[in-house]
Structures are given as C-alpha cells and as structure tokens.
Amino acid sequence: ILNVEQSPQSLHVQEGDSTNFTCSFPSSNFYALHWYRWETAKSPEALFVMTLNGDEKKKGRISATLNTKEGYSYLYIKGSQPEDSATYLCALENAGNNRKLIWGLGTSLAVNP
Amino acid sequence: DAGITQSPRYKITETGRQVTLMCHQTWSHSYMFWYRQDLGHGLRLIYYSAAADITDKGEVPDGYVVSRSKTENFPLTLESATRSQTSVYFCASRGLEGTYEQYFGPGTRLTVT
After folding, report:
1. Sorting pLDDT into bands at 50, 70 and 90, what band is B41?
2. Which of A42, A49, A105 sits opposite B101 (nearest CB)?
C-alpha cells in the first residue's frame, strides 16, 4: 500500500497567524492530489484538486502548491481564524486506479481566538 | 434536495444482526465509495463502485457486502455485525471524468453492542 504522509499531525495557532501543512506522497503513477477540509461532526469537503507539477490554487485565505516530481504538496492558511479549525486531509489519486483515493491521516488545526 | 444522503444517521445494533446502511445521490455520479472512519486510521475504503452493477473491494471489505442495482443507490450491508464494526461510515460519490472531487454524505454512526 502506498503511503500518503501528512505533517504535522496537529497544530495549535493563534488567531491571525499564518500556517502551513505538508502532504508527501509517492510520485510514480501520479494523477491528482486532493485536499479536503473536515470539520468536527461534519463530513469532508473538497478544497482543491491539483494535477500539474507547479500548480498553485487559492480559495480565499487558503492556498495550495504541488510538486509532483518530488512528491509533496503544501497547504497554506493566511491569517488563521477560529473557523479554520478543522482537520485538513490530503489524498492521492493514481492513474488507472479507478478513481480511488489514498488518504493521509490529516493535520488537525486548532485556531485559538 | 440534490446531493448525497445517508440513512440512518445513527444506528445501534447487536452483535450478529444484519444491518444495512443506505446511500443515495442525485447527481448521477458514476463512482460511489464507502469509507469507515476510526480514530488513528483516518478514512479507509471498504468498497467502491465504478457504475451500476460494478463493485469492487477496497482496503477493508471483510464482513461487508454492497450492491449497486441503480446508479443513485449504493447500500452497504453488514451481514453479521461485530463490535469491531462500530465506526462512522461515510458514503461518497464523484463524476466519471476529469479531476472531480469526491462528495461526501453526512455519515452514519453505527454502534454494535
């Protein structure tokens, strides 16, 4: 089984801090890298799906970059707010794998007001 | 309303009983997935389906059965529930082509006593 690794496992920041997390994945047979946001007691919601090396996507204060050659993606949150508190999951989609995702364990972010 | 729904949302059952978790989506998505979420394991794929009448095992299929007679429904059956199947179960769907994200249902919390 291919491993998708996320770091750190958890993070506590103060409101207004900027933060970033890492997702590492095996780059052979790469098709897409997904980022999801998962709030407590809710279900995961997609943030980004990235496919191209060097791709950078942004949604409000959240952005993500992708390096498929070295097998990593960064998720950045600028000026964290308490409502950003959630677990951020990344998932690898490999080519020819019937759209199955290989999930990381997530980074749990807590933003203190 | 359009979307992906799961029922029941909460279920308590006894060891040895059969229980079926329902998943329904209104987008006519080709792919559907069943995951379980347990502390320390993240999301683990139980079964998935690429289209009606096409299903395949995921990472942890033992003790579960699925069917997909219609595109919009993907029920998950625990044939003889065990305590180890106490978990939160998420159903997800996605479209056929492109880099579409997975859309998750609200989850079913199952307790096996």
Report:
1. confident
2. A49
